[in-house]
């Protein structure tokens, strides 16, 4: 059970791949959010139950009806939010596996009868893999993904790549505006990418924050080759990210989508610890001011604080300077040749 968000279901999909690799006969049911389902719905041999949280009590009733008369060998309770905890009560399972005590927020522990092993300072993806360990799955050397996409998405991305040539993607908008970098600095990064021979594609979701930020970036530069914000399905976007040389993004879903298809990501972080939520295979490319922000706000280093402690403020991302990002662009282009 993992309802949201896009980045987190990307992490969960790595566990699905691990289960299906080692236990190919296992019958998997994934209770997932409505939007997130649009990305994961093509996973092979997985039954999905879509939980639309906007439906409130009706969503729980629909979940109850969907699992009526079933008992599962194990329920993996991979979300600590109270909404998910309460909804999980309608699912009958011999083992109800939840997070360890340190990660059991919002009374999560009350709804589980088994807990994963404690894992200090675990990335979210590694935390999800702890559930595989609790099941007794063999370990894998590194996470893997298999998210099939329709042919139309392949064609869309191929046509874009043919039009653009070598290109980078900037996916500028996070779910909260305070986590977004400044539009003029995104514009400066775009101009630098162009100077390195890369076309620049803006991508993002259909929401007003995404559109507003994309327009603001374009008002500062003419270096944007293509703006596809709000125009793609999640599968289209996934294939565009796969074709890109690199991706620049804050703490947002496309950063983790890019990770699933092997594209290096320059993650921009100030509010959350990238060691926990950064793009899993590109942590060495993260540009972060989180450590200094959290130290100033609490007087303690991140190692002395509860794991997942966020820094607060509406202007923290302004502390990331353009030079740090352009230097990282050089490093990515050099290291990933």
Automatic annotation (TrEMBL):
Pfam families the record matches: Glyco_transf_9
Record flagged with keyword Transferase: yes
Span of the signal peptide: none
A molecular function GO annotation: ADP-heptose-lipopolysaccharide heptosyltransferase activity
Gene Ontology cellular component list: cytosol
SUPFAM superfamilies per UniProt: UDP-Glycosyltransferase/glycogen phosphorylase
Superkingdom, natural source: Bacteria
Keywords, sorted A to Z: Glycosyltransferase, Transferase
Gene Ontology biological process terms, A to Z: lipopolysaccharide core region biosynthetic process
InterPro entries: Glyco_trans_9 (IPR002201), LPS_LOS_Heptosyltrfase (IPR051199)
Protein name per UniProt: Glycosyl transferase
Species in which this protein is naturally found: Alteromonas confluentis
């Amino acid at each position: 059970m993992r309802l949201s968000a896009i980045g987190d279901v990307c992490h969960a999909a790595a566990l699905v791949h691990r289960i299906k690799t080692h236990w190919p006969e296992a019958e998997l049911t994934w209770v997932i959010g409505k939007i997130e389902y649009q990305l994961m719905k093509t996973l092979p041999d997985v039954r999905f139950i879509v939980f639309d949280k906007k439906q409130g009590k009706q969503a729980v009733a629909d979940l109850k009806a969907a699992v009526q008369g079933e008992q599962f060998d194990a329920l993996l309770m991979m979300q600590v939010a109270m909404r998910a905890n309460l909804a999980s009560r309608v699912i009958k399972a011999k083992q109800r596996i939840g997070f360890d005590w340190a990660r059991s927020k919002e009374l999560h522990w009350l709804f589980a009868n088994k807990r994963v092993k404690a894992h200090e300072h675990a990335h979210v993806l590694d935390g999800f893999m702890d559930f595989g360990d609790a099941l007794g799955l063999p370990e894998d050397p590194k996470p893997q993904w298999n998210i099939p996409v329709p042919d139309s998405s392949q064609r869309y991305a191929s046509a874009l790549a043919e039009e653009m040539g070598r290109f980078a993607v900037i996916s500028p908008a996070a779910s909260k505006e305070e986590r977004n970098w400044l539009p003029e600095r995104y514009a400066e990064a775009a101009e630098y990418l162009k100077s390195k021979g890369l076309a620049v594609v803006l991508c993002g979701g259909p929401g007003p924050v995404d559109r507003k930020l994309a327009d603001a970036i374009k008002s500062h530069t003419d270096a944007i080759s293509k703006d596809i914000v709000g125009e793609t399905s999640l599968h289209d976007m996934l294939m565009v990210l796969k074709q890109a040389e690199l991706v620049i993004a804050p703490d947002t879903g496309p950063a983790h989508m890019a990770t699933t298809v092997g594209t290096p990501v320059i993650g921009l972080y100030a509010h959350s610890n990238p060691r926990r939520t950064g793009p899993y295979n590109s942590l060495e490319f993260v540009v972060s001011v989180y450590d200094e922000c959290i130290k100033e706000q609490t007087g303690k280093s991140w190692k002395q604080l509860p794991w997942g402690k966020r820094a607060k403020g509406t202007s923290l991302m302004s502390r990331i300077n353009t030079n740090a990002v352009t230097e990282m662009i050089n490093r990515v282009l050099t290291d990933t040749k």
